[in-house]
């Protein structure tokens, strides 16, 4: 035990020193990275959160049933995945099973309450903390604004393709259910973009309820046109996590409806889509969304409740509109039209343990037979695990390899 404690102390010191002087990261990033390495050491030393036996599933409380599902979800995970889950549980708390994810018979919020609630949701976004461990954090070359009404927070543009004959641009859309998230999350992809001399544009878009999905799509298209018209790009790939993946499909759908004669520059510039745990059913009404005991550490029961009660992302009582905008409900003909403007195809990465697994699988069924649809499936029960650049280096490498294989076709 003394050796273990000594190892933990040593790992703390080493991680802090490396984080401060080698990676030049802030204190919060160093703390989270240090805690991760402590949990990894515990897993490697045999002090695992995974238990060898499970209780019988009879006459159990919700917490006991949740504990059983928790252990099932840990089966087959490696030590890095287990250490990552321990870190997430420490930061955000254990999963709760007291209230169902979908609210029933609860009075809707007023418009004023929704505005305030969504402001709190945006400020409480859980994604950004993990972006702190991305990097190496180059300074953006430009901070353009593509919002329809103007924004104090700007998009980030990195010109990594200097002196390159073949100029490739990566247009990034952050996730956050269209209600939270910021353009800084593009730093998750900065490393592989800079290493491969790909320009990177991280879009800052107006979120719900100040904007609609259609308006956000228009802001994304403004950014796309800027890359073509101002920066002279003729090879652009859209990439996004969760709602950002949804936005990739929204903009591809928009471009697929342009006139190929008058808008050839835009139609021909889009080459492929990179979809990381894409949000397909914005109604959030699939079996996993209703599952009280689901083990996804990011899309928790309380988060779904908050989204549903606040009408995220299309507004309360907008079921028909939400279905129209949800890829989960799109027909084969629409998918074929979208694929027609993605000549390099699509790369879709997600995990079998995440809450969107069911709806992504349904979309993949509709994409069968369409050329150049490549899929990578991991197991960790965490939606958009791709944000763990440093915690899950093997996952990161597999994802980047899939992306580069798409671009280099």
TrEMBL record:
The keyword Hydrolase applies. Keywords: Hydrolase. Pfam families: Abhydrolase_3. It comes from the Eukaryota. Residues 170-309 form the Alpha/beta hydrolase fold-3 domain. One of its GO terms (molecular function) is hydrolase activity. InterPro entries: AB_hydrolase_3, AB_hydrolase_fold, GDXG_lipolytic_enzyme. This is Predicted protein.
């Amino acid at each position: 035990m003394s050796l273990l404690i000594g190892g933990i102390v040593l790992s703390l010191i080493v991680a802090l020193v490396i984080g401060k002087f080698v990676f030049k990261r802030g204190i919060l990033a160093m703390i989270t990275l240090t805690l991760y390495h402590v949990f990894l050491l515990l897993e490697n030393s045999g002090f695992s959160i995974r238990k060898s036996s499970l209780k019988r599933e009879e006459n159990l409380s919700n917490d006991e049933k949740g504990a059983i599902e928790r252990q099932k979800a840990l089966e087959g995970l490696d030590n890095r995945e287990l250490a990552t889950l321990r870190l997430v549980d420490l930061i955000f708390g254990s999963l709760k099973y007291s209230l169902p994810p979908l609210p029933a018979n609860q009075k809707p919020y007023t418009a004023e309450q929704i505005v305030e609630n969504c402001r709190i949701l945006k400020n409480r976004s859980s994604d950004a903390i993990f972006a702190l461990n991305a990097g190496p954090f180059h300074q953006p070359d430009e901070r353009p604004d593509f919002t329809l009404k103007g924004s104090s927070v700007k998009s980030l543009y990195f010109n990594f393709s200097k002196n390159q004959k073949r100029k490739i641009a990566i247009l990034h859309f952050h996730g956050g259910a269209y209600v939270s998230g910021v353009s800084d999350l593009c730093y998750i992809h900065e490393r592989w973009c800079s290493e491969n001399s790909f320009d990177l544009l991280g879009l800052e878009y107006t979120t719900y309820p100040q904007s609609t999905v259609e308006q956000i799509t228009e802001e994304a298209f403004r950014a796309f046109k800027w890359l073509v018209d101002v920066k002279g790009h003729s090879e652009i790939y859209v990439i996004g996590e969760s709602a950002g993946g949804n936005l990739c499909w929204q903009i591809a759908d928009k471009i697929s409806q342009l006139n190929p004669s008058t808008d050839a520059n835009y139609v021909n510039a889009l080459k492929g889509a990179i979809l990381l745990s894409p949000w397909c059913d914005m109604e959030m009404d699939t079996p996993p969304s209703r599952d009280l005991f689901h083990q996804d550490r990011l899309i928790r029961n309380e988060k779904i409740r908050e989204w549903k009660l606040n009408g995220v992302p299309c507004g309360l009582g907008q079921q028909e509109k939400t279905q129209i905008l949800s890829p989960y409900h799109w027909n084969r003909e629409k998918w074929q039209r979208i694929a027609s403007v993605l000549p390099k195809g699509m790369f879709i990465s997600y995990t079998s343990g995440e809450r969107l697994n069911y709806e992504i699988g349904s979309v993949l069924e509709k994409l069968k037979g369409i050329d150049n649809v490549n899929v990578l499936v991991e197991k960790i029960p965490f939606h958009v695990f791709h944000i763990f650049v440093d915690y899950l280096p093997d996952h990161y490498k597999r994802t980047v390899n899939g992306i580069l294989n798409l671009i280099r076709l």
